[in-house]
Amino acid sequence: MKDEIDLIKIREEILLLVRPTDAEKMKLETVRQQIIADIVKIAKLQGQFEIIPISVGSAERNTWLHGNHDIDIFISYPEELTFEEFHEKSRKLLAEMAKTGDSWEDRHSEHPYIHIQKEGFEVDLVPCFRVKSGAEIKSAVDRTPFHCTFIKENIGGLEEDVLILKQFMKGIGVYGSEVRTGGFSGYLTEILTIYYGGFENVLRNAAEWKARTVIDLAKHQTLNHEHPLVVVDPTDPKRNVAAALSLTKFSTFIDRARSFLKNPNKDYFTKKEYPPLSEKKYAELMEMRGTKMVGISFKTPQEAEDTLYPQLFRFEKSMEELLVRNEFTVLNTFSWSDETESIIFIEMTETELPPLQKRVGPPVWNESNAESFCKKYKNKKETFSFSIEEDRYVAEIPRKYRTAEQLITDMIFKEAALGRHVRDSVKEGYTLMRENDIRKIQNIEFWKFMNEKLTAQIEP
Amino acid sequence: MKDEIDLIKIREEILLLVRPTDAEKMKLETVRQQIIADIVKIAKLQGQFEIIPISVGSAERNTWLHGNHDIDIFISYPEELTFEEFHEKSRKLLAEMAKTGDSWEDRHSEHPYIHIQKEGFEVDLVPCFRVKSGAEIKSAVDRTPFHCTFIKENIGGLEEDVLILKQFMKGIGVYGSEVRTGGFSGYLTEILTIYYGGFENVLRNAAEWKARTVIDLAKHQTLNHEHPLVVVDPTDPKRNVAAALSLTKFSTFIDRARSFLKNPNKDYFTKKEYPPLSEKKYAELMEMRGTKMVGISFKTPQEAEDTLYPQLFRFEKSMEELLVRNEFTVLNTFSWSDETESIIFIEMTETELPPLQKRVGPPVWNESNAESFCKKYKNKKETFSFSIEEDRYVAEIPRKYRTAEQLITDMIFKEAALGRHVRDSVKEGYTLMRENDIRKIQNIEFWKFMNEKLTAQIEP
Fold it and tell me: What is the ipTM of this complex?
């Protein structure tokens, strides 16, 4: 009973903070109408009578948070257009639209798309095909208008619950589906709110989630994914809305939901800030840990974050695997990146191993493998010992890489090859950083990041 | 073809070495007859008319090696006797028999049994019950006469093959079923020779063995053991003749059989000798390996080897597990023991770990375990960090045991408790030996043993 009252009170307090004001709403509405009018006007001038502007995004569905100034407008073209026609026409239109912003940026990768800033709003203008359903898309973005329609038709009064859930997720650090975060997207948050019926019910159910939880709103029963959470897209049965959600963020949400329900508290809605570490404090921390930190620094490839981060993560992972394969004990790895510099960090128990390595070979009854193992190590001058332990051949041999630094130096190009842009940058040049080099990094954001990595605490 | 000739030649050469001479045979036969006559005479004098002496062992079945001076005589009593009567009568008889030897030793544990030395022979005198079959024994030793009979009835001309096989096993270090060796017993060697039909055929088949090979001579199909090799005892369907064979010795035999058949060679029949390591050579070896050796030395409990060694091995294993559980990297462990001193050795990559330990907890959805893990580590002053990685809680905490020595000192009594005699001895006092202490050991046998452990080579 008290908990119920607590929850209601917290709800009201959070809503006061996250609900957009009437002035905000009016401002956004005005800018949005202006942009749509501009699109229609320019299209007509260019003889493009077939386009239809579609307002999508959280603003359109009343699930946007106070202070958020994003406007997403899709410009739909008839499905029948060839890609060539589509590209030609849409680029021409976007080129004129760019001039209507206070500033603009061409963000197209394979798909044409521009971002403009206009009267304080961040506006995405994205051309798409007007397809029949979310399951029959022609380009990756064609699904978005269907998402928007689905939410508008089904949200039925739960808009404020979405606002509270989004703010809760921001507070605990699991909101945002970009690769760097690996958290919950806005659409996923809305689907969960609809499915479970409100903020508290999402939390109550999430507290009971296990890996491979499946949520199938439209009863498609089509998905058998390996993802931690499977939420079948009601507009496209083949798609998992939660595909980008990492296991860590999924698990964090479960833990925080359970903890919040036990002791509801406004603190959950504010992201914990880690102050920057000073050089001295960092040195002290590392002294206390007694571990060894190595950094691999290189120029940040000039790519979108969602292109860059998967490559950083793969590089980080491959460095960890390389070190573990060579018997170094890796405690933690993480990737830092800003506009100019990217650094992969690896924290180890030690960076030097003894000259002797014990290599366990195949079982004696695996004759062909046994033969090549024996050929490689048996009766060699440099072999310390060669024996049989239980069912295996065992060779004690000189270790090839005694230090992590030597190993990384020798193998980095092979391992970095996993991502094209990172590989090219590393090939241009990299620096192997030890404690002393790391300490000299001058970047407040970096030292906040490092503080969080070294002293993370789940709170409250 | 050449291989066949090689094999025949080697056979002949080895037989010349291992076949007992006629003089040897006659000598043994004389002593054996004398002992049996003594038993019958003394029994009669004591009014024990129901005993029957039974000659068992390899001498009886013509499968004894030149230079082997063992005689095994069982003294069988009627099955109907109570254990009390059996003990009383047999002890009385053995007491008199002891006097017929040049020297004697009471070796009884639960079972009465004496060992005498007589005219250069090592004689075991073992009382037993005269039961109906090997499957209906009253005491553990009652099976032996059936083994002897079975071999005598089935060996049919393969006696010399047994000799060669035994010598081969001695040469490669897998002969002997005592716990310390964990190799092939004489009876097992004979059964294999009968089953496969001769020395070369045993090797040809063993070269193809895999773990859990089953040999069921008498088609009992009764055994489903976890042992590497299962040889159903033809005289007792419930018994695995190869129960004492370790996986290491089983695998060694497979490897050596395969290797010998590829390139037959007399060297296989001579056990490789490792010369004793000098203090200087040991220091050099350890310097080259760059690893850390720790020894735990204590007084050898005055027990039979087959009682002592299982306890030593269990202690060794428990020390390894203790260290591994506490994140030390154990490369090798081994047990040394002579009449006065026993030492457990543990070779590690390092004996000191950093102050920080990373502890991976339960998955977030395992609520009760999660709760106790969080309670233990979350929001504690001494916790470095507490976070979620993938589906697990992870705490970075101060390490309890930073050095192997401290860990061993604190935990040794708990771990040594696995074997009564070793535990009692360790409790009386033990010494933790480091490199410098180990170097000071004055014992040639020890330094041969250490040389074998550190520089073992499977040859040829």
Answer: 0.92
* Parts of chain A with a pLDDT under 50: none
Which residue reads 């059964």 in tokens?
Answer: B191
Pairwise CA distance, residues B386 & A452, whole Å: 11
In this structure, the answer to whether residues A233 and A295 fall within a common structural domain is no
- The reply to whether residue A349 touches residue B353, judged by beta carbons under 8 angstroms, is yes
Output phi, psi for B432, to 5 deg.
-85, 115
- Predicted pLDDT of residue B223: 65
Q: Alpha carbon A142 to chain centroid distance? A: 22
Same-domain pairing of A417 and A324 = yes
Domain count, chain A: 4
Same domain, yes or no, for A70 and A111?
yes
Could you tell me the CATH number of the domain that includes residue B311? Answer: 3.30.70.590
CA distance A420 to A444: 29
CB contact under 8 A, B456 and A291: no
Do residues A263 and A385 both lie within one domain? Answer: no
Contact yes or no for B288 and A228 at CB 8 A: no
Residue A244: which domain range? 155-269
Give the best residue of A293, A324, A331, A365 to mutate against chain B (max B CB count within 10 A): A365
Query: Which residue is listed with tokens 């591994």?
Result: B324
3-class secondary structure, B77: strand
Mean pLDDT of B331-336: 96
CB A300 within 8 A of CB A342: yes
Token duo for residue B237: 């369907």
Which pLDDT tens digit goes with each residue over B254-313? Answer: 999 999 999 999 999 999 999 999 999 999 999 999 999 999 999 999 988 888 999 999
Smallest Cβ–Cβ distance between A358 and the set B327, B331, B365 belongs to B331
Q: What is the pTM of this model?
A: 0.89
